[in-house]
Amino acid sequence: MNSDLEYQKTKAYVAPFAVFMGFTLLWQFGGPFLEWDHPAAAWWRRAPEQWLYPLQAVVCFILFLWWRKSVDWDWKGKPAAWGILFGVLGILCWLAPTMAADRLPGGPDAWFGHPEWPWYRYLLGIDARPEGFDPSAVFAPGSWSWLTALALRFFRAVIVVAVVEELFWRGYLMRFLVNPDHPWKVPFGTHSWKAYWITTLCFMAVHQPVDYCGAFIYGSLAYLLAVWQKNLCAVIVMHAVANALLGWAALEWGKCGLW
Predict the structure, then answer these.
(1) What is the pLDDT at residue 153?
(2) With contact defined as beta carbons under 8 Å apart, do 160 and 152 qualify?
(3) Are 242 and 94 in contact (CB under 8 A)?
(4) Where do the TM regions start and end (predicted)?
(5) How far is Cα 1 from Cα 186, in angstroms, rounded to an integer?
(6) Model pTM?
(7) What's the angle, vertex CA 206, arms to CA 217 and CA 157, rounded to 5?
(8) Are 192 and 178 in contact (CB under 8 A)?
(9) Do 142 and 176 touch, CB atoms closer than 8 A?
(10) How far apart are CA 232 and CA 229, in angstroms?
(11) Residue 154 lies in a domain
(12) Which of 26, 114, 119, 129 fits as disulfide partner to 257, beta carbons 3.0 to 4.6 Å?
């Protein structure tokens, strides 16, 4: 493979994720400057995440479409079916701590202490997660604005995040860690312990501390699926299914902090 083709492939696998993370950092560090929590403020000032996240999704999706021909797609039914199964299993592991804590006699505080001392609770994923992305904070539930916000949120989680993250984590970074000089000579799903640990821990680190436990288990399952099936689309399907179920759980249980 010549250097121009390698450069194009690297852009296709890395650039959408880099832009995605750029938007995330913009909200994380610039949110206080974008937000104006005042009764007289318009919705886009009171809750800038309601337009920033959709903008992030649209921009990254356009980048993905622009470079899609440089991606080595390999859609097959059997790996995709395994992706669905691994997605269900992965998200059940992710949700298990908060599901179990809600059902403990006396609640999680009686077993794990007050949430003002959260470090061990957060590492285990034990938290009520009531605060997070909630369109009903600015739009009337059932309105077109509310439905549009929800649709864009699912589009971001199920389509954009699944594709953008898997192109980078399993599609590029795993290969790069096996052969930094020529990552595109490494077949997809090539195993090395270095690739497993660094990819999985980095995937974990970009999530909230309360999700570290679930993200580590999920990342390990995604790595296993990639190595076993050696199919990029399998891990994309896994991520899409997991995020769809996570979004459903956030809405069904009123745990907006899950997504």
Answers:
(1) 95
(2) no
(3) yes
(4) 12-30, 50-67, 79-97, 144-164, 232-251
(5) 12
(6) 0.90
(7) 80
(8) yes
(9) no
(10) 9
(11) yes
(12) 129
Q: Which domain holds residue 137?
A: 74-258
Q: What is the pLDDT confidence band of residue 55, given thresholds at 50, 70 and 90?
A: very high
Distance CA 66, CA 57 (A): 14
Flag whether 128 is in a domain: yes
**CA-closest candidate to residue 91, choices 210, 213, 245:** 245
- Count the domains in the chain: 1
pLDDT tens for each residue of 129-153: 777 788 888 888 889 999 999 999 9
Residue 68 resides in a domain: no
Residue 47 domain-assigned?
A: no
Contact 203, 215 (CB under 8 A): yes
Buried b (16+ CB within 10 A) or exposed e, 210-237: bbbbbbbbbbbbbbebbbebebbbbbbb
Q: Please report where in the chains the tokens 């059940």 appear, as a residue.
A: 92
Distance CA 23, CA 30 (A): 10
What tens digit of pLDDT does each residue of 198-257 get?
Answer: 999 999 999 988 888 899 999 999 999 999 999 999 999 999 999 999 999 998 888 888
